[in-house]
Amino acid sequence: MKLTVKIQSIEKISTDALIIGLFEKAQKMRSVGNVESLQQSVSDMVSVDGFKAKLGEITHVLRPMGMAVKELVLVGLGPEEKFDEEAFTRAARAAFAATRAQTVSVLITDWRLENKTDEWSVLQLAMAAGTAFEPLSDDDRALLDKRRVTIAVQEKGVALVQAAKIGEAIAQAVNRAKVWGNLPANVCTPTYLALEAKKFTAYKSVTVKVHDEKAIGKIGMEAFLAVAQGSREAPRFIELHYCGAAKTQAPVCLVGKAITLDAGGLCLKPSAHITEMKYDMSGGAAVLAVFEAAAKEKWPINLVALVPACENLPDGAAYKPSDVIQTLSGKTVEITNTDAEGRLIIADAITYAKRFKPQAIIDVATLTGAVEVALGSDITGLFVNDPVLCDMIETSADVANDPVWALPYGGRRFRELLKSNVADCANTAPRGSGGGSSTAATFLSQFVDDDTPWAHLDVAATAYRGGKNPHSTGRPVPLLMMLLHQLATLAE
Ligand code: BES
Ligand code: MN
Ligand code: ZN
Question: Which residues take part in binding Mn(2+) 1 (predicted)?
Fold first, then answer.
């Protein structure tokens, strides 16, 4: 998708399609103004079609009179008094997904909220334009590759152009993550992900290191290797550096879980659940996509991305319940459940992250099924040890329309649940303890220093949609992109 911001009046717009937003029961279209012929052709159409302008409702007007466009895409914005951020996004996405036109325009005048700036609207429209197709099919991708979108504005400022650029970059990164997430486990192997990451050397100031099994052993990531040892797929530890700011500036470290198939190990999952576990690399995919975007857009920030990638399978060589494993940190862990593998590989990656003295560590993982019980399937679980970072993540989530909710972890009560008689801790709490997402976060927190701001995003319920038409959503790419953007602007 190529996005431009342009000063243009409605009659002059000559793209194949033009999106027009309409409020329920509105007499006149805001953006149409005094183009009488257009008002007429639209109201005729609306009365024939029975279009009610309900939120997200779509109707098409072909070859509207008095205009240069081939197609009007009318989208319902719902009742005007209920038009909020949520309604905005739903309507905008519905509209962009409703046409296969190669060139599409949209008028900012249709897309304004009372308490929001035009920059906000442009950012939202850009994100919606680029991410509207979900699930994202190969045809949709081909269309997006060719698609040109114009946002017609009244005044063209630097801020608007920048907002469009960020929105476009976010959309592109979301789609990257979606594509990786949707790949089957026999294609999207640890080796495949590492090869994808290797391609990032094409960007300036990027270094890519891929650690193979031997190198991972040399580092001492035994918890990671324990998870990988039941699989014939070679594990990979992907380490990426991007230096977009002064070398003296501490990097932000992103850590992403990439279990390319989680069968549960010897604590085998029920087969119906195993197919879905190809999405268990979504955290890693999000981290790779965000890293690539920052490097490509040359954001003034230093980044380290760490992606431990392997499979979790049952096998004669697999790690076993009751095993005691030494993590990279030196802490020993009793394996009480081989299906709690994500926390083991993330723990070792977090420990590894410390050597870069990062200003913050953010890990992204499809870590627990319990997060869906806690928050439903639209909100990502957030666990964070620092109020400033918490605030920044919440703000980013809000702007990016990628919601999170902070949950508790740590403390005496949760720690007690992870006690072990044979090791420093167990990898799971006793069955039936409840609070599975919080105990998982508590496990991870043992590998973080209190003085390093750390956040853990549990995206098990948000990184993909299950059910009849399962597909990857690319979350939490939008929130991570906004966060990095915020951090980059702060440091400038
Ligand atoms: N990858 C799963 C978590 C998951 C579950 C992601 C459902 C998406 C949908 C993770 O490795 C896992 O198996 N977690 C266990 C933890 C338990 C054994 C303490 C879980 O959630 O059941
Ligand atoms: Mn598991
Ligand atoms: Zn898993």
Answer: 262, 339, 341
Centre of ligand 3 from the C-alpha of residue 158, in Å: 44
DSSP string across 141-185: HHHHHH-EEEEEESS--HHHHHHHHHHHHHHHHHHHHHHHHHS-T
Pocket-forming residues, ligand 1, beta carbon under 6 Å: 262, 277, 280, 337, 339-342, 366-370, 428, 436, 460
**CA nearest 111: which of 81, 139, 141, 91?**
91
pLDDT at 147: 98
Compute φ and ψ for 50, nearest 5 degrees. 70, 25
| pLDDT for res 141 | 97
pLDDT reported for residue 31: 65
Ligand number, closest to the Cα atom of 265: 2
Per-residue pLDDT, 464: 98
User: Which pLDDT belongs to residue 330?
Assistant: 98
Please list the active-site residues. Answer: 269, 343
Estimate the crossing angle of helix 85-97 against helix 118-131, to 10 degrees: 40
**Could you tell me the distance, in angstroms and rounded to a whole number, from the CA of residue 254 to the centre of ligand 2?**
21
Q: Strand, coil or helix: what is 404?
A: strand
Beta-strand relationship, 71-76 and 58-62: antiparallel
Q: Give the number of other CB atoms < 10 A from CB of residue 159.
A: 12
Q: Are 114 and 100 in contact (CB under 8 A)?
A: no
Per the DSSP assignment, residues forming a β-bridge with 103 are 148
CA distances for 45 relative to 171, 173, 212, angstroms:
33, 38, 62
Q: Considering only CA atoms, which residue is closest to atom 17 of ligand 1?
A: 340
Q: How many CB atoms lie within 10 A of CB 66?
A: 13
Give me the phi and psi of 356, to 5 degrees please. -95, 5
Instruction: Give the pLDDT confidence score for residue 40 in this predicted structure.
Output: 74
Low-confidence stretches of the chain (pLDDT < 70) are: 27-35, 37, 41, 45, 48
Residue 43 is predicted with a pLDDT of 73
Provide the angle, in degrees to the nearest 10, between the axes of the packed helices 387-400 and 118-131. Answer: 70
Residue 161: CB atoms within 10 A of its CB come to 16
Interatomic CA distance for residues 59 and 466, integer angstroms: 29
User: 106: which 2 tokens?
Assistant: 């949209």
Q: Whose CA is nearest to atom 6 of ligand 1?
A: 460
